[in-house]
Amino acid sequence: MSVSDVPEAITQVHHEQWARVVAALTRRFGDLDIAEEAAAEAFATAVERWPADGVPPNPGAWLTTTANHKAIDRLRRESKRDDKHKEAQMLSADEPPEPLGVVDDQRLRLIFICCHPALAMETRVALTLRMVGGLTVPEIARAFFVQETAMGQRITRAKAKIKAARIPYRVPSAEDLPARVSGVLAVLFLVFNEGYLTTGSGSDPVRQDLTAEAIRLARLIRALLPQDGEVAGLLALMLLTEARRTARISATGELVSLDEQDRGAWDAALISEGHQLVRERLATGVAPGRYQILAAINAVHTSARDVRDTDWSQIVALYDQLVRIDPSPIVAMNRAIAVAELDGPEVALAAVDRLEGSLAGYHAYHATRADLLRRVGRSEQSRAAYDKAIELTGNTAETAYLARRRDQLG
Q1: Contact 252, 269 (CB under 8 A)
Q2: CA–CA separation, 72 vs 77, rounded Å?
Q3: For residues 200 and 202, what is the distance between their CA atoms, to the nearest angstrom?
């Protein structure tokens, strides 16, 4: 590997190993701050050394060992008493492995720790995205539509609360799992979405490492809670969305909208598995939750061999169900997009315009509005909406797509 290839290799290793390193350090030291800072220092050391020394044969082991040394050094520096110094020395010795219990995947176990019921739901999600997903604070802030400083403070307070409340890093018992699963599913959904269409400027348009990891963890939770409808629904939703991934970015790096995608390039095996999960949940007769309805919407889309065959009336009916249990502005916006196919863009535009107060900082709102304005012939307003969407999006593929649609207005 040449020196010029090392930065790309480090980025790839960060995507693959961050959560493993943080999980290992959290288990060992019992402190999220120590784990995160030591992991960050280990990666910083890799940036310094690997261009000269080369990428080690086992990057994950190198990073974990380096991070352990960094954590021990920090504990020693901060030690004010002899017993603290001895504690730091003891931590440097090899430790016997902890019994794994009901959850035997380190990263999944770390998710359940971050999703402790003592934390508010949004805080659980944000903390886990940072500690497990390795997302930056700006990326998480965009996902929550909040200021970067506010999100940083939220994550800092969450780690402080875990430490102050002495919440232990331990394996959740079987009884713990149902109470924590909703927060875990919310985390996985956001991790998957960030991978499917990244928000960070300068990032790859799609991060398959994140989508693959979210699916892998969802499968583990499905095995733990096979009767949970929302677990099955989220897994189905991810599979049906992931099935379209390769058709979503063009050869020139531009986003390809659903109506323009080559449906022959969709992954038939993932679609089949997703449809099977949706059918299984329908057969139970139990009222579906949010993820199950979203999966059903995606099942309708992926059932159509041609976009003209899409059953829009069924999609609107499913959104009507979803609005009743999740009356969020984003759900209302997506319902309006479907309504445009049934009742026309004028009706949909009126519904979307009512959401401006809630979604003014959301790029997809302006992109949706731009398309509807284009369809009703209001080109100047459409151009302005495209400009606003381009300003707000950080994804290079989406920027290219929006710029092309704007320039087509003439």
Answers
A1: no
A2: 9
A3: 6
